[in-house]
Amino acid sequence: MNLKSFLKTAVMPLLATALIVSCGETKEEIVANEIQQIMETNKAVGLAVVAVKDGQVVYNNTFGYKDLEAQTPLQKDDIFRIASISKSFTATGIMQLVEQGKLDLEADVSDILGFEVRNPKYPKVPITVRMLLSHSSSMNDYNGYFSLNSINPDSSKTWKTAWNDYEPGTKYEYCNMGFNTLGTIIEIVSGERFDQYIVNHIMTPLGVYAGYEIASLDSSKFVKLYEYDTEKGTFVNSPDAYAPRTEEIANYVMGKSTPVFSPTGGVKISAQDLAKVMMMHMGLGTLDSTTIINKESAELMQSQIIPTNEEGTTGYGFAICTADKLIDGVTMIGHTGSAYGVYTAMFWDAERKFGFVVMTNGCTGRRDNGFMSIHREVAACLYNNFVKEQ
């Protein structure tokens, strides 16, 4: 083979391939194709993904539908109810009040709430703010978590069943009631209604469009959430995800009605705006020139305060866990959320160099290594294409 033929048949195709791969737009197309395949495998209704590297958004895209029945395409500024990632907003609000000297992490929550909060098996052990933040209070969700009456001896005959057998502060059990309690504490200590406090002191300063109260947001942006019926192989809409709670809000009692806004899971926000919040955490409390919490508070939130008992995670801080199974061989920190059919994930690497937000409004619910398979597969795709050295 002469040189001209060699260049034409061997070298030029390789150069062309290298040129295509090196092109950012074409790489996005490659990633989009991979993600479409992942969606098909998991039967996802819609999917919003954002990848961040070195302080910049390097990928932001949406796929599928926000409304399955109407076949309405999902848009980048559409809003999901993100479920338990909401806990990180509540924890951030608590840390702001601690920094201001208005609250102490070791405070007995009984003194704040005005009724005794105790594990009946350990009545002399105070339940502290720190314990609630780290899911180590020994409180559980057996009695539900939509009313503080569940843990109030003066209001419930079954309050004792809301507590586990072990001593507070010694073990981990994920507890939604604990974070609805923390939201109530924010309200009492700050004097602002919980949802308004988070909007005024976290969301608005970061420049994100988000909130808790349905009436305060553009309902046309809400992404419908769908539960998957495994027997029928179909999706069922979950309208309660965006229930307005109009009557409850009209009769709101400060320091008591807080669970109406669900400090444990009620934030509504787009993936691209949640990525801004994630970048604040990656910046140890600061995004650009806006500081939400100080470095020490951010580091405490992102630390491993107590070992978890959940597959895929090793430790829990304050509404942020450490995960070693989201991406194989990479230690990540962040949080997931699931409710009403939504599955969300916000994770960044422990050294804060890159991170991902992944949200779907409905899929089969298949799991892998303690995580939703769709989260692991999309995170691996983003990592391999935008982060990992080629």
Q: How would you summarize what this structure contains?
A:
The protein is of the alpha+beta class. 33% of the residues lie in helices and 21% in strands.
Description:
By secondary structure, the chain is an alpha+beta fold. Helix content is 33%, strand content 21%. The chain has helices at 3-22, 24-42, 87-99, 109-113, 129-133, 176-190, 194-206, 246-250, 271-282, 295-301, 373-387; strands spanning 46-53, 56-67, 72-73, 80-81, 210-211, 226-229, 234-237, 268-269, 286-287, 290-291, 306-307, 313-316, 321-327, 330-339, 342-349, 354-360, 367-368, 371-372. Strands 3-2-1-16-15-14-13-12-11 form a 9-stranded antiparallel beta sheet, with helices on both faces. Strands 4-8-5 form a 3-stranded antiparallel beta sheet. A two-stranded antiparallel sheet has the order 6-7. 47% of the residues are buried. Mean pLDDT is 94; it is low at 1-24.
Number of strands: 18
Average pLDDT: 94
Shape: globular
Approximate strand percentage: 15-25%
Oligomer state equals: single chain
Compute the separation of the termini in Å.
32 Å
Name the helix and strand elements from N-terminus to C-terminus, one letter apiece: HHEEEEHHHHHEEEHEHEEHEEEEEEEEH
Stretches where pLDDT is under 50 for at least 5 consecutive residues are: 1-24
Q: In order across it, which strands form the biggest sheet?
A: 3-2-1-16-15-14-13-12-11
In percent, how helical is the residue content?
A: 25-40%
> What count of helical segments does DSSP give?
11
Q: What is the C-alpha radius of gyration, as a whole number of Å?
A: 23 Å
User: Largest sheet at a glance?
Assistant: 9 strands, antiparallel
Derived from helix and strand composition plus strand pairing, the structural class reads alpha+beta
